[in-house]
Structures are given as C-alpha cells and as structure tokens.
Amino acid sequence: MSTVSISRSKLEWSLFGLRLGVFIVFLMWTLDKFVNPGHAAVVMKVFYSVPNLSENIAYLLGAAQLALVISFLIGFQKRWATLIILIMHLSSTLVSFGRYMDPWGPSNLLFFAAWPMLAATITLYLLREYDTKFSLGKAA
What is the domain partition of the chain in residue ranges? Predict the structure, then answer.
C-alpha cells in the first residue's frame, strides 16, 4: 500500500464540501415529504412497491429523515449517520436501475446524478475520521 501526503486543511475542507453537498440533496428530499407528501407517496409506490402511503406516514418519514440528515451534517454519531445515508442513497440508486437503461426517456437523464453522489457518500463513509471540519465527530 502506498501513502499519499495531503494537507489536513485541504482534506477537511474537501470532505466538508462533499458532506454539505450530500446534505443539501437529502434536505431537499426530506422537505419534499413535508411540502408535497403526495409526491412521497408516488415515489414509494413506483420505486419501493409501497402502496397508499398516507400523509401522516410521509410526515413521520420526513421527521425521521430530517433528524438523520441534521446528524449527518453536524457529524453526530458519524459512523452510523453516514452509513445510513449511504445505504439510503445506494438503495435509491439501485431501485432506479430501469431509468439508466433508457437514459433519454422522460426525465431519466437526471437519475444519472445519483452516481457521483453515491461516490461522495462512499468517500465520506470511508474517510469519516478525517471529516472533522464543522463536525462533532472525533479527529483521526
């Protein structure tokens, strides 16, 4: 195994940038459950085969997801929060697999943005002990 030298400051700022970017996407998905719970119901039905998601359940999912994404942003319980974010995003990327087979179908090209975000979440999980900028997590 070879070693790479990088300034700690550059690494911390880079990881923070990734964390902030992933947070913004997850925050918008979370807020959508409150602003448009009907959309959450359609997503759950189309992609996860969950029929008839009620508004109350959408709000509960939104509240739980909001707690998770805030924990992720501030680095609280970093190992678990980042792992859950990673699993959630991996599952949403994989359940959309049919969209990748028809990239020029209606709105399907946008689904490809999931792959770099998945790479970012994997990076954040693997390097979580170095992701300390504006974080409650412990430094390496």
Answer: 8-130
